[in-house]
Amino acid sequence: MTETTELSPYAVQRVRHPLNVRRLRVQEVIRASPHLVRVRLCGDNMQDFTSASFDDHLKLLLPPDPDAPLVLPQPGTEGLAFPPDAPRPVMRDYTPRWFDSARGLLDLEFALHGEGVAAKWAVQARPGQEVGVGGPRGSFVVPTGFDWHLLVGDETALPAIARRVEELPAGVQAFVIAETADPGDRRALHSHADLAVQWLSGGADGGLAAAVAAWQKPEGEGYAWAAGEAAEMGALRRVLVEQHGVVKERMRVAAYWKRGASAHHENL
Ligand SMILES: Cc1cc2nc3c(=O)[nH]c(=O)nc-3n(C[C@H](O)[C@H](O)[C@H](O)COP(=O)(O)OP(=O)(O)OC[C@H]3O[C@@H](n4cnc5c(N)ncnc54)[C@H](O)[C@@H]3O)c2cc1C
Fold this sequence. Notes:
By secondary structure, the protein is mainly beta. The protein has 4 helices and 18 strands. The protein folds into 2 domains: 13-138, Translation factors (Elongation Factor Tu (Ef-tu), domain 3, Beta Barrel), CATH 2.40.30; 142-267, Nucleotide-binding domain of ferredoxin-NADP reductase (FNR) module (Rossmann fold), CATH 3.40.50.80.
């Protein structure tokens, strides 16, 4: 089901997908940089897997400890139904970085931030292990035809940002402002768009919000997308509104995590 919020070529579309929970197997693990692991999952149940937007997320379902059996819930009339008397999997949000439904492949990228079930699972991930994947349940589809696209975020947003710039066409401008605590985690970004990338180191003065404040907003129609830590994203949203005059229909700012909280997700 598709819902359009604005009648214009710049209208964002919200698409709903049927909820599926799949059991997938780790096929390959690549330590791409000091704090980034790319995990390729595979399964013969991926034919109808879809992800319409770089902004999508899925629920990754992990056993409470990596070698414990994985008991998965099933979609029911009221969301996920968990079998009684079985340990519940841990659920965390991740971006479908790349997928090939026909070949049954799905790549996820994990920021290794140290704490947390998912970050610890990614450190030890090895071929043959099983995980569950729920969704994506819906997609927030931002048109690619804006004159400019601003993409801002930390390590957790980089999978979405990397996917987005790969999807953008020639003839549009893309500005990426990205922060990694370790400069070793900076990565090459590939795009047909006219791409300008600014890397920040963690702890830089004012961080992402200050860098966005200093950014020169171009003329024309544009869209701003940002994701990262909750407080930092709150400050960044204020800069977009108060300094750059970006209206809510032209931005998506999300807290992908919150200092001191587990599994936090909020669209600001
Ligand atoms: C829509 C969406 C898409 C996302 N996509 C990705 C993705 O593709 N790749 C990715 O790596 N992450 C992604 N995230 C972020 C990821 O879901 C969170 O970082 C999540 O908290 C990780 O779970 P965990 O079990 O490792 O830690 P949790 O158990 O959730 O948290 C444990 C502790 O670690 C802290 N913490 C969590 N994340 C970080 C961090 N990045 N840096 C420092 N401290 C942290 C928490 O504040 C908490 O104190 C996404 C989040 C959302 C909402």
